[in-house]
Batch of 2 targets.
Target 1
Amino acid sequence: MKIAVLPGDGIGHEIIAEAVKVLNVLDLSLELETASVGGTAYKEQGHPLPESTLKLAKEADAILFGAVGDFQYDNLERHLRPEQAILGLRKELGLFANLRPAICYEQLTHASSLKPELVAGLDLLIIRELTGDIYFGQPRGRRTATDGHFPGAEEAFDTMRYSRPEIERIAHTAFQAARKRKNKVTSVDKANVLETFQFWRDVVTEVHQQYQDVTLEHMYVDNAAMQLVKAPKNLDVVVTGNMFGDILSDEAAMLTGSIGMLPSASLNARSQGLYEPSHGSAPDIAGQGIANPLATILSAAMMLRYSLNQAEAADRIEQAVQTVLAQGLRTGDIYSEGTTRVGTAQMGDAVVAAL
Amino acid sequence: MKIAVLPGDGIGHEIIAEAVKVLNVLDLSLELETASVGGTAYKEQGHPLPESTLKLAKEADAILFGAVGDFQYDNLERHLRPEQAILGLRKELGLFANLRPAICYEQLTHASSLKPELVAGLDLLIIRELTGDIYFGQPRGRRTATDGHFPGAEEAFDTMRYSRPEIERIAHTAFQAARKRKNKVTSVDKANVLETFQFWRDVVTEVHQQYQDVTLEHMYVDNAAMQLVKAPKNLDVVVTGNMFGDILSDEAAMLTGSIGMLPSASLNARSQGLYEPSHGSAPDIAGQGIANPLATILSAAMMLRYSLNQAEAADRIEQAVQTVLAQGLRTGDIYSEGTTRVGTAQMGDAVVAAL
Ligand SMILES: CC(C)[C@H](C(=O)O)[C@@H](O)C(=O)O
Ligand SMILES: CC(C)[C@H](C(=O)O)[C@@H](O)C(=O)O
């Protein structure tokens, strides 16, 4: 089983190193190959997603991804900026299903902005469509407006779109995930305003015919943003488009108060997947050895489960993370009085020890 | 001064009645004229925004709007659904600037989902562009895909767009509002992915040249959704597009825990405005006399301030609302132990008494 390891920028290298440590003690026959991506790749090779990195990613069974982005690349032209690497990988590998768990760990409930009773035990799964919508729709660009409020003015535009098969496959992903959980799916759209999301609602409703054992509810995106704050535990599996999913999955992650703990998976139809922490590259703390590696370690666990068919090893890692939390070990982002503050490498070592 | 009063559906009639009560005791020479809108108008006249209602709205100096929407209209064709009334009014009157305050009242801090220290004293203003973006962009519809992942498949699509003058005018609104507040604007976009919002960022930055006394920061929408949860008090004036504003303004409103208290204003270039509570039509509690009329009463205050040039009267209403809160009067949505539960009409009467 071949894994492409792409550390990226900022804290990427530090957190990936710990996940690699953990994978290495599992005694599975994994072949890990590292390549650069993001701003680092731009610096070294002139492009955030070099051909060689893309080739490695395509050949691998799974990709373990750190994070990309750094202030120093903010003024590059768009197609050279670090985030193009992640957009490019999603597109080139067809990684249409993004699974973003938002879990509130018992020991970390206090770290949430929300009152403990609202988030204690929270375990919700946001399923974001990742290769369609306004992220990739054509045409897009700048032009002179020919209609609208200011004909003749300069304008910029993008195209939102979803085709039936794109909606169908992500709906199947959601209903199947719901069957392994609480048999409930909330589909988030803006059917009252957008043609794209009226169609989304229609197609999700059709696919639901094949999953009569699962309850389906439809919710407008503005209401979903509210319900996440008001009563997140009323939601279980939430499925939505790329743009709304970007916003809601980050909102949900922040609700838990411990985004440093949250992994993610982005899968294609062949179960090839890219696995990365839900948090970013945090350039402000890069190189200090204080970043939380647990989201990346848990991403490696998701990788074992979803792409490498090693559910047992995944369970072991997740169990080991529970153990280090129970031991009171905490990186700075989740530290609270009475616990033991550790650095990135110490946390990784502790997980290894717990294994 | 002529005011179009449009109660709408659900609790609309009940809450508007209290705002009208309040306006009537102010002894301003206001001419109020009522017309139907939304599902109610569809039922009576076959269209959610009848010609006569639109005509009245256009002639009036301001519109006091209740709420629209009810489950019974969910299966109507889109162009006949209640929410088309509000979209139509925004478009026909050119109400491009939506001001959505998110204020956490001292006495109601406990009602928030967030820990009290995070929201106590929260006073943020979201300025949402309201007549552009993907809400109104053409073309939109269904068609057969000619490219993308599934050429030949059925697809639906919408067009996101912003022209330079549309961005300029809402940026001016934001910077001017900031001058009356903390001299800080956060512009929310998705410049890393969307052409429309790269342009948005560019134009806002240009307009900012004229407001060097105001600090401008740019924030991605996914990050904004997180920062609202993490540290809402770090934000003051937030300006964004129609779609992102829809989501973020509702998220922010819910953070306060008392959406029943939050007014909104939608203004055009001539300071004509539509004023409505931030909450919806709540058909589940309609007709029971328990809805909170304060958001609507506070919307009437905003109307006096922004469209009718009666800042003093506006202050008086806002003061009266503070008084009834201090008296411990609460409708069900904001009730807590030790306070006095009142109905819609009693609450309106109390505000009148406080005046
Ligand atoms: C970096 C950016 C392009 C990306 C996105 O918008 O998808 C990120 O926010 C994410 O959610 O992975
Ligand atoms: C009813 C709907 C069309 C409307 C919108 O999306 O703008 C509403 O959510 C709002 O925010 O006023």
Note: Chain B has a mean pLDDT of 96.
Target 2
Amino acid sequence: MIRRLARYLPILDWGRRYDRGALTCDLMAAVIVTIMLIPQSLAYALLAGLPPEAGIYASIMPIILYAIFGTSRALAVGPVAVVSLMTAAAIGQVAEAGSMGYAAAALSLALMSGVMLVALGLLRLGFLANFLSHPVIAGFITASGVMIAASQLKHILGVPAGGHTLIEMLDSLGAHITDAHLPTLVIGVLSTAFLFWVRKGLKPFLLGLGLAPRAADILTKTGPVVAVAITTLAVWALGLDLAGVAIVGAVPQGLPPLTIPDFTPSLLSTLALPAALLSIIGFVESVSVAQTLAAKKRQRIDPDQELIGLGAANIGAAFTGGYPVTGGFARSVVNFDAGAETPAAGAFTAIGLMIAAVALTPLVYFLPKATLAATIVVAVLSLVDFSILRRAWAYNRADFAAVLATILLTLGLGVEIGVSAGVVLSIALHLLKNSRPHVAEVGLVPNSQHFRNILRHKVLTDPTLLTLRVDESLFFANARFLENLIQDRVAADCPLRHVVLMCSAVNEIDFSALESLEAINERLKSLDIGFHLSEVKGPVMDRLQRSHFLETLNGRVFLSQYDAWVALTDGAEKSCAAE
Amino acid sequence: MIRRLARYLPILDWGRRYDRGALTCDLMAAVIVTIMLIPQSLAYALLAGLPPEAGIYASIMPIILYAIFGTSRALAVGPVAVVSLMTAAAIGQVAEAGSMGYAAAALSLALMSGVMLVALGLLRLGFLANFLSHPVIAGFITASGVMIAASQLKHILGVPAGGHTLIEMLDSLGAHITDAHLPTLVIGVLSTAFLFWVRKGLKPFLLGLGLAPRAADILTKTGPVVAVAITTLAVWALGLDLAGVAIVGAVPQGLPPLTIPDFTPSLLSTLALPAALLSIIGFVESVSVAQTLAAKKRQRIDPDQELIGLGAANIGAAFTGGYPVTGGFARSVVNFDAGAETPAAGAFTAIGLMIAAVALTPLVYFLPKATLAATIVVAVLSLVDFSILRRAWAYNRADFAAVLATILLTLGLGVEIGVSAGVVLSIALHLLKNSRPHVAEVGLVPNSQHFRNILRHKVLTDPTLLTLRVDESLFFANARFLENLIQDRVAADCPLRHVVLMCSAVNEIDFSALESLEAINERLKSLDIGFHLSEVKGPVMDRLQRSHFLETLNGRVFLSQYDAWVALTDGAEKSCAAE
């Protein structure tokens, strides 16, 4: 009973074995993650166009629900950059940023995303996420990073700019650049420079001081906290808010409120597609982080249960003033490096953030938005990796086309069109490749029983025998290709008496392909040419036996191609088909 | 020069070799086809909701243009049943049947279809038609046959009924059934019965009289002409038109007029999708007829040039008062059986139809529409073949689902939704199958160098070595599946030291799969487990060598799986992974 329940409630599994050692590790990790999460949560809320407390709230209930339902021991769930950007893009279509409707729409988006994720998980449809090809995801994340960085420049410059695509953003920034607010710019640029130095230069410096590498790693993650503290103090001490530096201002003190999403049907239907895209992108990112971390400790991730965990987290966010969340890379790695042993570390982090929400929010009153923007810019630039273009180009033109289209469309037309186009293009290019399979005419390698491509090897052929090896499963998209190919070969004036299809690489023959084989068989029969198969795999043969094809076959099925050669040739070894 | 031009103008090829023998054969075939085409053309125009002369016109210019540009020697182009139905469905959305706008929209549809076909041909994209899987086409044709037969019942009953889906049609017929017009019903039922007898009973009867089989075949095709002649005479003699029997009435006498399609942008954009679907369905049907006939004489069909030929035919139809056309099965077979040697037979048929259009149209004034409806019903019922459901079910559940959905949606929601759903479903099911490939754990067959599935055969395994054979190409939709599978196997507490991926059935590794292999390699490396490949195919290996994968591989690439076994095991032969 408990075992069956434990499939849907992994907490029953690790909870029963929880001990003091794990508790100490988890508490330690929670303290470090909490400190790191406070500025990050505020910043991502800003990115999503929501009030700063939404970021904190989105880190509390979701993290607890994930601890109960999720399967990863180290994944930290909460607001992340790409999902925040997608949230802003989705809600920007239906409400004005900063309005009451905007926050309510964010709750609806989180709820829909949560329900979709749970439904996919219960139906065990996690594999659907596989239809996002890796290069498309990489292209999308890179383009999103560029978009996010561009969207934050207005806070660093201190100007009111807007736009949903890169061109619109740069246009709007260009129009306002002369209005740049000097004190804001100084804070923004200095914060950005400091954070870059922390990321690149602090670790070697700390290692030089003799610190252990892991401690140095963790300390570099506190950079944003230091930047936040210094700039907040500076604004407060110098009264820069009165000089026009935008600050976070009053953040409500208290635990996450109980909130009700907006259920207006027209809103829900408008948000359905964005919610689906956001769910899939969030899930793919989260699972790949979870798997990377789990692999290091030989732990297992159940992708379908992960859907349920992430779904529960999003539903939790919807009812506690948050917005869509997922497993974040940076926070999860810190959690793992800081020694988190179980999901309880997440629960302790949630408690830490609750304390912060109740007690520490007055401290961020003077926090300049430019500092938060700087933390976002520095964080997302690590996502930007245009080398995917070069690597895809070197490997495979089709993948390159999919990446390039995803990047250009995401930058030019927005995140939703970009990622949708990437998926459609991946599928189309895959089908296109499959529809023109590699077919080799093969001959016998002298003094062996092996058959190889007549164009690549010196092999024996017989003018009365044509042997074709198809290097692809036969299915509807390429069935007719084979029909045409054989018809073209037969129409040439060779003294052909037998055609053999060597099926060693055919993993499947679908019904369309079966009908094509029947058509080929009929046509060859009317020309008095035998049609034979060789090296057919077990499962394919099982299926053929369920049809009438083998009864009507004007030839034989040979176990090996060599058997076919021996049976069908008279030993004459001339070259004809190879001309 | 001529050779290059001959690729786009096949007439240059056969025209230069034309002689008196071919001329005699072609003239003979043309006479027979012309006689058969007159009632058929009138009937299909009726089905498309157009005036009867549109059917004749659509058989003249298109047949000449196809003779110039097409590659099939025997294909007869003109109105066909399914395309007529699709025309009626498409134009019914934008204009009232019988109105001026309706005929103009039919011209626009023909023009768009023609331009699309020519464009696909010039871009050599004929393979796109392959994405219609055979069972989807079969299901669609069957459902269309039922729809067409149902749509003609109103003419046989002599009632004004309508509807675009089977349910609407039957509903409307049910509401009018009590108004059935008796003389019309008598003509309709007797014609239908006669035509069924001609189809089933006449040939044995003629063979019994000692006629040659081919002559008997051709004579049975004249059934509709006989039915038309008798019923027309009956209406004229008995004055049945005055009693309320619907007749064809006055048909303009003369050559096809020069017509200009309607170029209204909103009309063209509404008709774009229907035109695309109609083009593809028409092309697929036409090419399969052409290939079947060409195969009998060892002739070749160039599908891309066929697109150009059919496209030219449709553009011709658009400017000469016709409507969308394609290569028809019945007329092509008659043409072939009657001995047509070259496309000139088509040109002679066109001349025959021109004579008919100028001289014979007064003769069909008293032709009852019920007779035409009967010829349609009898013709299309030969298209109806529900056995595709049984055959697909026996062979493969996924194909069955696609057929069933196509049939039900075509009958329930109309031809466009039906065929679109069939295409989408075929692709989705194919990807779904590919996304969960067959992966077998293999072991060594004792006293051999062969490796087989440990679940099916008694084989040797080694507890430190896990060998997986993937029976599918690795690409984005299944890459993560493999990642999860290996992670799950490694997380189990076996004393694993090596994982070997046997790639004998892997025809391709795309960029996503490469990244998955890199991720697997990284994870296994961190666990100190070797990762090896064996039996990698040449083209796959070429591609892997273009990436950095082989440099970082924590293991080796073995030529054969047996080499891997010899190198990686210590000879101990216990079973572990097979539990």
Note: The radius of gyration of chain A is 31 Å.
